[in-house]
């Protein structure tokens, strides 16, 4: 293996070996090999041979091999489906994971792994650290996901082909330079890792879009400018999915470094250790090559006299050392006497950390398995309540382990959890609230460490317990996979032996309590008490009630829609086959490409080389609509297929059998601006811009004798712009109830209001909303159908008429550059760290973020305040209105027919006054009523 030439430098050359990826590659590349005891070692041999060549030939001054610990990471917390569909490793490969680590240590090379992060993240962090010291980095891997790291001083080396991968190879692979790879991957997704991407956008289209718009954020902000309707709609409908995908594929250069850089300096191996390892594996050729014939004889004799080491059954299960200053005293509670002891301690201390263990990530579908409590750091207990009762009952002589009867434990815990003199502390307490509510338990008062972290460090990092424990406490927590296993062999927590359950569950409560003491103290120092106390802390109670209530679906309507979509797909299929002159698989890109570009002879706008398959992406088909009937028919077919599978069929499967309703889950701590996000199902992403998409909302219904009421804020972000920019003319117009778009048109285009036409008003509306999102002259020109010069003139006239808006924008950009965050009117910090990025496109997007975040963030704060105040009013008035859903600026309620008018009269003013005295501009809400969500909105 030839060394990679290095330019002049001040640091060292660090070789980072992607151990996890190489193991699989070697396993599939080499034929089966077994050592004398029958253990297969082909992957171990391939790895050992590669590492020996690398150390012998390359100009490495520092070396490390990086491994994955488990599939659980911050990515699975962000997107539980990430890598979820990957099959377990082959059985004969599993023992080789531990042996590859042993091989690494035999060569005296650090074998590095870290729970909560993938190997690629550690490679990114080490590469960044070495380059920062003036060194060079060679990443030994051909993994495409690592190509985003290539930059001056960082290259990839494919060990199988002995080929260096640099910027030119990245452009050849992705169509963009390394710094844009993440954005392309975010759009195209990755079926291997289950990264969703944007449906219908492949690699070629993704590269074209990123090259055109510069980066993902700019693209999404300007998605309305895209000419192709299907592509435009896909980006608009799936913008949040693209952002999530970006976080899944972007490597964490800020990941912790488990081993310091100086400790990676290359060191000679211990000859005896290396000989013993090679002999045990029966790698005679390597023994002969590395230590000579005499070494072979001695090491082989020693290995023959020594039993082969026991190989663990699965990789990544080694204990991670915990810090010395983190003593642990955990105990099981299996009797009422012990439970009352812990309850008494909680009363004496005045606070208790609480966590639940269950059978499901979905709170509304979960069964309670146990509860853990902690009253002082390092002391915690676990109360098993449902072990041995799940399917696959524990092998305990068909007897449940000793546990307090569930009803008795619930009766004992109920007064404690509701006691106003004892503070309850949780991590993502909304989940526990829903689980415990199924047993008649309420939690009050409480603090939530996830929300404390979110208020303090909203856009800086994730707020899951594992990440916070590592970041703030230096504790690597026990992973779920360590106690429950992985893949097909994973068991329910109800089947976990109590000793393992104790360590895992009690640690959760203990770590939560430790985090509370650390984070709560920062609120006052960092002046975030008001935001936390008035907006974030009350929210779990409100949202948990909404999630428990759920939304009713008309099963028959969904089935009708599914059948209708299916029947129309069948008609379209027949039309496509007739127009094509033969029957083929419409879902097969290759077969469709052959028809379009082979048989029909259409111009192949998607093919970039003679060896590539024809592109049948939506944007390509859009460009071919006028050339032949087939492309347009296929696009119509795909739209119906998506609506059928993603919504009509999927929503039916997500109806909870216990309640007969669908229960979405709202994430309280994921967005930078404070907005809530929805998942399982994502009800915030139901398409409403097309007639077909709007039909899905017809399936959301009120029960007989009730109606759905939708109340949403009118032009809230424009009102906030008038407020924060201090535009008196706009503020006066909103106060007077004037048509704001007509007023803008009149003042910018100098057209009297009484002679205003719809087209002129439409242009003004586009400018009003475009300004908020940083629309360029090019984007505006595309939006309203004028030349770019005319659009620029309109924008110039707009700022001349409203100079306060330009002043606000400049002020926010300057403030963000100074402190890396801007704030909402309620004091929420919206972090924009890329405002100082050297990349012009990323910097420009951060500037647009700095302008928009105070508006979107304040709107989110107002909606949260509205939900909290609505909840209070409903409790006080006993009005039988149930909040069901929130979608950005909209709240949906279920109300008996007799109370609809009272509900609107009561709730709309509450929402309109939710901002309190912070705003001088009035907020206006519009209310709609209907038997279905479609009719109400």
Give a concise summary.
This protein is of the alpha/beta class and 937 residues long.
Overall body shape: globular
CATH architecture of the largest domain: 3-Layer(aba) Sandwich
Strand content: 5-15%
Q: Terminal Cα separation, in Å?
A: 66 Å
The parts where pLDDT drops under 50 for at least 5 residues are 1-9, 294-326, 389-398, 605-612
CATH superfamily of the largest domain: 5'-nuclease
Q: How many helices in DSSP terms? A: 37
Helix content: 40-55%
* CATH class identity of the largest domain: Alpha Beta
The biggest beta sheet reads: 6 strands, mixed
Rg from Cα: 30 Å
Number of strands: 23
Structural class: alpha/beta
Q: What is the number of domains? A: 5
Describe the structure.
α14 packs parallel to α15. The chain is globular. The protein has 37 helices and 23 strands. The protein folds into 5 domains: 252 residues, Rossmann fold; 34 residues, no CATH class; 198 residues, Nucleotidyltransferase, domain 5 (2-Layer Sandwich), CATH 3.30.420; 111 residues, Taq DNA Polymerase, Chain T, domain 4, CATH 1.20.1060; 161 residues, Alpha-Beta Plaits, CATH 3.30.70.370. The longest helix is centred in the C-terminal third of the chain and has 38 residues. With 937 residues, it is of the alpha/beta class. Helices cover 49% and strands 11% of the residues.
Keywords:
six-stranded mixed sheet; 5 domains; 37 helices; 937 residues; alpha/beta; Rossmann fold; globular; 23 strands
């Amino acid at each position: 293996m030839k060394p990679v030439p290095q330019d002049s430098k001040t640091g060292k050359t660090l070789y980072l070996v992607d151990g996890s990826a190489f193991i699989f590659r070697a396993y599939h590349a080499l034929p089966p090999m077994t050592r004398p005891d029958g253990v297969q070692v082909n992957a171990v041999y391939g790895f050992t041979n590669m590492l020996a060549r690398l150390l012998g030939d390359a100009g490495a001054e520092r070396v490390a091999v990086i491994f994955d610990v488990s599939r659980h990471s911050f990515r699975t917390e962000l997107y539980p489906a990430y890598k979820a569909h990957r099959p377990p490793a082959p059985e004969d490969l599993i023992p080789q994971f531990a042996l590859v680590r042993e091989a690494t240590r035999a060569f005296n090379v650090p074998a590095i792994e870290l729970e909560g992060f993938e190997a690629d993240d550690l490679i990114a962090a080490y590469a960044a650290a070495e380059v920062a010291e003036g060194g060079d980095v060679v990443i030994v891997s051909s993994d495409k996901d690592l190509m985003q790291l290539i930059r001056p001083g960082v290259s990839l080396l494919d060990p199988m082909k002995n080929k260096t991968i640099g910027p030119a190879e990245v452009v050849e692979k992705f169509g963009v330079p390394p710094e844009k790879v993440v954005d392309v991957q975010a759009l195209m997704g990755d079926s291997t890792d289950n990264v969703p991407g944007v449906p219908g956008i492949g690699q070629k289209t993704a590269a074209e879009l990123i090259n055109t718009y510069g980066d993902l954020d700019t693209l999404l902000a300007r998605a309305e400018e895209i000419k192709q309707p299907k592509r435009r709609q896909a980006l608009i409908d799936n913008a949040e999915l693209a952002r999530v995908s970006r976080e899944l594929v972007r490597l964490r250069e800020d990941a912790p470094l488990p081993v310091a850089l100086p400790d990676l300096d290359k060191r000679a191996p211990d000859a005896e250790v290396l000989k013993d390892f090679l002999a045990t594996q029966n790698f005679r050729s390597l023994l002969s090559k590395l230590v000579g014939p005499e070494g072979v004889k001695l090491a082989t004799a020693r290995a023959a006299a020594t039993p082969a080491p026991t190989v663990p059954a699965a990789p990544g299960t080694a204990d991670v050392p915990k810090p010395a200053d983190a003593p642990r005293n955990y105990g099981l509670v299996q009797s009422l006497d012990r439970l009352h002891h812990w309850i008494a301690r909680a009363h004496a201390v005045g606070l208790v950390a609480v966590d639940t263990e269950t059978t499901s990530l979905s709170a509304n579908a979960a069964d309670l398995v146990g509860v853990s409590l902690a009253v002082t750091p390092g002391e915690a207990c676990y109360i098993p309540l449902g072990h041995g009762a799940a399917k696959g009952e524990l092998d305990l002589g068909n007897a449940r382990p000793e546990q307090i009867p569930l009803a008795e434990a619930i009766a004992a815990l109920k007064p404690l959890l509701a006691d106003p003199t004892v503070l309850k502390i949780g991590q993502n307490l909304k989940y526990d609230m829903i689980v415990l509510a199924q047993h008649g338990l309420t939690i009050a008062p409480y603090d939530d460490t996830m929300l404390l972290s979110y208020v303090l460090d909203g856009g800086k990092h994730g707020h899951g317990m594992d990440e916070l424990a590592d970041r703030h406490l230096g504790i690597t927590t026990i992973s779920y996979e360590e106690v429950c296993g992985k893949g097909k062999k994973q068991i329910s927590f109800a089947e976990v032996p109590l000793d393992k359950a104790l360590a895992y569950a009690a640690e959760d409560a203990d770590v939560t309590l430790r985090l509370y003491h650390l984070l709560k103290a920062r609120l006052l120092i960092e002046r975030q008490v008001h935001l936390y106390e008035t907006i974030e802390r009350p929210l779990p109670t409100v949202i948990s009630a909404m999630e428990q209530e759920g939304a009713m679906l008309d099963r028959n309507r969904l089935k009708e829609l599914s059948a209708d979509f299916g029947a129309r797909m069948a008609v379209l299929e027949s039309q496509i086959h007739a127009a094509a002159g033969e029957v083929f698989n419409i879902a097969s890109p290759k077969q469709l490409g052959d028809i379009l570009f082979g048989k029909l002879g259409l111009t192949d706008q998607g093919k970039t080389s003679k060896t590539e398959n024809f592109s049948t992406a939506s944007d390509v088909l859009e460009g071919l609509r006028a050339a032949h009937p087939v492309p347009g028919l296929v696009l119509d077919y795909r739209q119906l297929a998506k609506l059928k599978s993603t919504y009509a069929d999927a929503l039916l499967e997500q109806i909870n059998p216990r309640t007969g309703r669908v229960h979405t889950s709202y994430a309280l701590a994921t967005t930078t601006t404070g907005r809530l996000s929805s998942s399982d199902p994502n009800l915030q992403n139901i398409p409403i811009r097309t007639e077909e998409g709007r039909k899905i909302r017809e399936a959301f219904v009120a029960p007989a004798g009730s109606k759905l009421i939708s109340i949403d804020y009118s032009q809230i972000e424009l009102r906030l712009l008038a407020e924060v920019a201090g535009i008196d003319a706009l503020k006066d117009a909103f106060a007077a109830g004037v048509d704001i778009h007509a007023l803008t048109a009149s003042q910018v285009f100098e057209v009297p209001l009484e002679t205003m036409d719809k087209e002129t008003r439409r242009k003004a509306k586009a400018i009003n909303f475009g300004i908020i999102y940083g629309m360029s002259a090019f984007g505006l020109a595309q939006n309203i159908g004028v030349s770019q010069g005319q659009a620029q003139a309109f924008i110039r006239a707009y700022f001349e008429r409203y100079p306060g808006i330009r002043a606000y924008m400049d002020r926010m950009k300057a403030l963000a550059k100074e402190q890396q965050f801007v704030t909402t009117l309620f004091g929420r910090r919206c972090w924009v760290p890329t405002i100082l990025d050297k990349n012009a496109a990323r910097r420009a997007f951060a500037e647009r973020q700095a302008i928009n975040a105070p508006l979107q963030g304040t709107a989110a704060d107002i909606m949260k305040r509205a939900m909290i105040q609505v909840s209070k009013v409903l409790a006080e008035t006993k009005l039988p209105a149930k909040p069901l859903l929130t979608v950005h600026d909209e709240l949906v309620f279920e109300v008996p027919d007799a109370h609809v008018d009272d509900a609107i009269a009561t709730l709309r003013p509450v929402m309109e006054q939710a901002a309190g005295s912070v705003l001088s501009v009035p907020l206006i809400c519009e209310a709609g009523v209907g038997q279905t969500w479609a009719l109400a909105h």
